[in-house]
Write a structure and sequence with these properties.
By secondary structure, the chain is of the alpha+beta class. The protein contains three helices and seven strands, in the order E-E-H-E-E-E-H-E-E-H. The longest helix has 10 residues.
Length: 131
């Protein structure tokens, strides 16, 4: 039976939505890593710049992590879409971003659709919009 979940995570004071409910790119290639982290529950999600990425020097990895018995387990589960990552790099707003999980759908066949919002500090919003 497919799994559908939606989260209602509040927007922190001083932040606003930069990009609304978009899919993580490449998540189908990172299914095993995604399921290893998610199956235990109590996970968190984050982003890291991947400037050594051989395909895109503006790449931004999406990571999932959880605390395990022997410390923190973390894995790459996909990427912020390339066009968006380029605009983030050009605007120099990466350090002002927060990723907010919105929804996940996992099909019986293992297909994953993971949607997130990107939040940005209010004072950095215009830098992104003007790129």
């Amino acid at each position: 039976m497919p799994i559908k979940e939606r989260w209602k995570v509040e927007i922190p004071d001083g932040y606003r939505i930069l990009e609304r409910e978009f899919a993580i790119s490449g998540i189908q290639h990172y299914k095993d890593e995604f399921f290893k982290i998610v199956k235990k529950g109590n996970m968190s999600f984050g982003m890291k710049q991947d400037t050594k990425n051989k395909y895109d020097s503006n790449a931004i990895k999406v990571t999932a992590s959880r605390k395990g018995f022997f410390g923190k387990k973390e894995a790459t589960i996909g990427f912020i879409p390339a066009e968006m990552a380029g605009q983030i790099s050009d605007a120099k707003v990466f350090d002002d971003l927060i990723m907010r999980p919105k929804a996940v759908y996992i099909g019986d066949d293992g297909y994953i659709d993971f949607k997130v919002d990107l939040l940005v500090k209010k004072e950095s919003f215009e830098k992104y919009e003007n790129v």
